[in-house]
Design goal:
Elements (H helix, E strand, L loop, with lengths): L11 H8 L3 H9 L7 E2 L5 E2 L2 H15 L4 H9 L7 H12 L7 E3 L1 H8 L5 H9 L3 E3 L4 E3 L4 H7 L6 H30 L5 H37 L1
Antiparallel strand pairs: 1-2, 3-5, 4-5
Length: 232
């Protein structure tokens, strides 16, 4: 399995193509401090990592949610500085769960370009089973923000059935948490409030809820692993 340190770096053109944005957008975000600077190599060429790609996807998703650049900057500043591309992809996936369907229809060639690798028929079957990709007659429907996380899961050295079972567990408990939180929000707003008031409260709560969910989950998982290793 290829590790983060072994993954080849990207030029600014490759980064923009993989993320589905323009080079100008990448440089604009960099100038605003939303993206860390690239590693400068020979001939003054900037080299970007998978963390840059995952952070760019998160920025685009937060912007899609309606957050201003100033709000996005504050959000990113609150994240731990050493998050991996995988951690950032999880953040993006949780944020995206609040948004309407953002899937796009694309060809297999474009899908592989976005994925940054060739995809075998087995890979496509696994991505379809994880609901990252949906096969159509002559194209694929894919959420470009969730695709990087799905592609990385292809290389996880555990059985595909285990990944799907884990996904089912997360969906079940996340829906239960979402229901409980929506009840709290509804009670906080109260009956008779306008739709605008409800949307405003939801927009303010979303980034806080996302960070709280990820932080508590990561801490709980570490505690579970420690207990498991003690028993082994």
């Amino acid at each position: 399995m290829t590790t983060d340190t072994e993954e080849r770096t990207l030029t600014v053109d490759e980064l923009a193509a993989r993320a589905g944005v323009t080079v100008r957008t990448v440089r604009f975000y960099s100038a605003k401090g939303l993206l860390p600077p690239p590693v400068i190599g020979p001939r003054r060429v900037g080299h970007y990592s998978q963390e840059h790609l995952a952070r760019l996807a998160l920025i685009e998703e937060l912007q899609h949610q309606g957050m201003t650049l100033a709000a996005i900057e504050r959000y990113l500043q609150q994240l731990p500085p050493d998050l991996s591309a995988h951690d950032l992809a999880i953040h993006r996936a949780v944020v995206a769960s609040w948004a309407p369907d953002a899937a796009e229809d694309t060809s297999r060639e474009e899908l592989e370009r976005r994925a940054g690798r060739a995809l075998s028929d087995e890979d496509l079957e696994r991505l379809t089973a994880m609901n990252v990709v949906e096969r159509n007659a002559d194209s694929f429907r894919v959420d470009p923000g969730l695709l990087p996380l799905g592609v990385r899961l292809l290389d996880v050295p555990i059985a595909h059935e285990t990944i799907l079972a884990a996904r089912s567990v997360l969906l079940e408990h996340s829906r239960a948490a979402a229901h409980a939180l929506s009840t709290l929000l509804r009670d906080a707003v109260g009956e008779g409030e306008s739709v605008a008031a409800v949307k405003s409260l939801s927009a303010h709560m979303q980034p806080l809820v996302v960070q709280a969910l990820l932080t508590t989950f990561q801490r709980s998982l570490k505690e579970e692993l420690r207990e498991w290793l003690k028993e082994s």
